[in-house]
Amino acid sequence: MGQHICICSRSSITIENKKYYFIQKLEEGGFSYVDLVEGAQDGRFYALKRILCHDREGRQEAQTEVEMHRLFNHPNVLPLSGHTFVDRGGKTEAWLLLPYISKGSLWSVLEKLRDKGGFMPEDRILHIFQGICTGVKALHDKGYAHRDLKPTNILLEEDDRPILMDLGSMNKARIEVRGSREAMTLQDWAAQRCTISYRAPELFNVESHCVIDERTDIWSLGCVLYAMMMMEGPFDLLFQKGDSVALAVQNPVIIPQPCRYSQGLQTLLSSIMVPNPRERPDINWILDQVRHLCSLERPVEANMV
């Protein structure tokens, strides 16, 4: 007799009055789990992010993440398909239902290329980077900053359309720091929520009277661009060796030479990764530069008679 799988035995969950079947575990983090589920009605696959809320503050953070998703309806920002809060044995779990992107993250694409000894062609880098910047512009235009941009937090659709995910560290773009206590609070928060090798210099040693703004994202964007060009972030190896990233980010980034990419792309990277946030460009300037570089990529066919 052939194997007969009974659908009724598949464990199911309900979110916003819709039923979903559990397929498999996808990944596990410190405070969250991601499962692959299938919609009973639409047959689509979704990523179910389950966040463990240890206290009221944890629940509030999960609620904020839900609200951040709800703020944006943009092709380069991951939408929220549904959510619910579940009480399990005295503990609360936030369940966030998100579209499942089968191609995975930008990081997984870079790892596959690196393992084969390959690299990303410049036109592909520009195409992906333009989409990432467009997503970041949508966040900044609404007065928010992502605060944890990195290749693992960028999903890629089949057509290489990048989608920003993990909005759990997002907050108001402009944070006024008044005094050393506020500076330490922000510094501690950044140490927990902003990945060290993609963290902006101003978040390592927060000054007691300053304004931290969306230019933290610009630095992280530079690290992402560097990773696409070099197959790893500029401070990844340093961090793995146990050296001080906080010290390294105080200096302008050095692009290893010889470099296979155009001078234009190298110049763009150098102008983004400036340690002093006041000298960093904004997202509109970067997008203008990327569009200009994209226009230089194409004329080859156009000139052929």
From TrEMBL:
Query: Which UniProt key words apply to this protein?
Result: ATP-binding, Kinase, Nucleotide-binding, Serine/threonine-protein kinase, Transferase
Database matches in CDD domains: STKc_16
Q: Which domain of life is it from?
A: Eukaryota
Q: What's a single GO MF annotation on this record?
A: ATP binding
Q: What is its EC number?
A: 2.7.11.1
Reactions catalysed, as given in the entry: L-seryl-[protein] + ATP = O-phospho-L-seryl-[protein] + ADP + H(+); L-threonyl-[protein] + ATP = O-phospho-L-threonyl-[protein] + ADP + H(+)
Protein name, per record? non-specific serine/threonine protein kinase
Q: Which SUPFAM superfamilies match?
A: Protein kinase-like (PK-like)
InterPro entries under this entry?
Kinase-like_dom_sf (IPR011009), Prot_kinase_dom (IPR000719), Ser/Thr-specific_kinases (IPR052239), Ser/Thr_kinase_AS (IPR008271)
- Annotated ranges, domain Protein kinase: 20-295
